[in-house]
UniProtKB/TrEMBL annotation:
CDD domains: CobW-like
Originating species: Sulfurivirga caldicuralii
Ranges for domain CobW/HypB/UreG nucleotide-binding: 5-168
Descriptive protein name: CobW/HypB/UreG, nucleotide-binding domain
PANTHER family referenced in this protein's UniProt entry, alphabetically: COBW-RELATED, ZINC CHAPERONE YEIR
GO cellular component: cytoplasm
One Pfam family named in its UniProt record: cobW
Gene3D superfamilies associated with the record: P-loop containing nucleotide triphosphate hydrolases
Length: 322
């Protein structure tokens, strides 16, 4: 029986997983049919709208593919295999634990797991965060290939320190690739995964709580939902098209309150923008028309939510829908 190669692109929140997918899709050989599985954490579709060029994209929502959305992942894999896809790329959420997903791929008779990729940044790979984050250590231990991304934002010392941390662990990655804007070559990923002889996971796989309604008085909201997992609080907001955001005010909101991570698709004036907040940088890029504005924000402290929402309120105008 022939098998379909599957690539697992792991990494912490905001490290550049979707950027890597976008770059790989530009290199897709014309004779191949690629299927992408994106597991955006939260009730909103964001990453899947940013990925172009795949033959099929399946979005798995309702939690992490490593726990509550495992069934959704199995269904997505089956749908892609039925559709005659010849290569599958999977982006789990930045809070997913990799071991559970790896087991699913290794035991699936129709799949051949390729080199597991962990996209990490030198800014994330500091000794303090390494010590604190069991998820970071597990991602590094399972990865065959670490894409050390965002080196454009790091000094030579910070990059070297990150590489040392990766090499000192019990199972160093076979390859570490320095990258800027995840500018990797497809052939770097075309190797089978080599399972470690024995892995002792330091991390108890989490169970992300399901999203619950979130009380807030932000204007124009369709809904707001909240979930908590591994010390991170995630808020997903959705507004109708009458909500219009001021770009300068939004920049101020994020600069002043600096949440852990944020991403969204929002209406500003007549245009729609893709919003990204990572590494204390806010970027807004024009994007296609959307049905509604969406924002997914991760906080590491509950008391950071109220100041964020208070400022966010001032960035929203309500206009007649156009
Ligand atoms: N300066 C710089 N920015 C980058 C680089 N790679 C990605 N980014 C930006 O970082 C932000 C997050 O990138 P994504 O690719 O969405 O990260 P992700 O890992 O998919 O994020 P989640 O899915 O939310 O975990 C975006 O604004 C990217 O444009 C890089 O090498 N350098
Ligand atoms: Mg992503």
């Amino acid at each position: 029986m022939s098998t379909t190669p599957v690539h697992l692109i792991t990494g912490l929140l905001g490290s550049g997983k979707t950027t890597l997918l976008q770059n790989l899709l530009k290199q897709k050989p014309s004779e191949e049919k690629w299927g992408i599985i994106i597991n955006d954490f939260g009730p909103l579709t964001i990453d899947a709208t940013l990925v172009a060029g795949a033959d099929k994209i399946v979005e798995v929502r309702g939690g992490c593919v490593c726990c509550s959305a495992q069934h959704g992942l199995r269904q997505a894999l089956d749908a892609l295999l039925k559709a005659g896809i010849t290569r599958i790329l999977v982006e789990p959420t930045g809070v997913s634990h990799p071991a559970e997903i790896t087991d699913l791929f290794l035991h699936h008779p129709a799949l051949e797991l390729q080199a597991i990729v962990a996209v990490m940044t030198p800014q994330q790979l500091t000794p303090a965060r390494w010590e604190k984050s069991a998820l970071m250590r597990d991602l590094a231990m399972l990865a065959d290939l670490v894409v050390l991304n965002k080196i454009d934002l790091a000094t030579a010392d910070v990059i070297q320190q990150a590489e040392q941390l990766l090499c000192q662990q019990p199972r160093p990655p076979q390859t570490i690739l320095r990258a800027s804007h995840a500018d990797c070559q497809l052939h770097d990923l075309l190797k089978p995964h080599s399972p470690p002889p024995l892995l002792i996971w330091q991390h108890k796989p989490h169970q992300c709580t399901s999203f619950m309604p979130h009380e807030t008085d932000l204007p124009g909201l369709i809904d707001a939902q909240r979930s908590e997992s591994d010390g991170l609080i995630t808020l997903g907001y959705r507004w109708g098209p009458e909500a219009v955001f001021s770009r300068p005010a939004l920049r101020q909101v994020f600069a002043d309150t600096a949440p852990h991570r944020g991403k969204g698709l929002i209406r500003t004036g007549k245009r729609w923008q893709s919003l990204q907040w990572a590494d204390n940088i806010l970027s807004l890029q024009e994007t296609a028309w959307q049905r509604d504005s969406r924002l997914l924000v991760f906080f590491d402290r509950a008391d950071a939510i109220e100041p964020f929402e208070t400022r966010l309120k001032d960035s929203i105008l309500l206009k007649l829908a156009q």
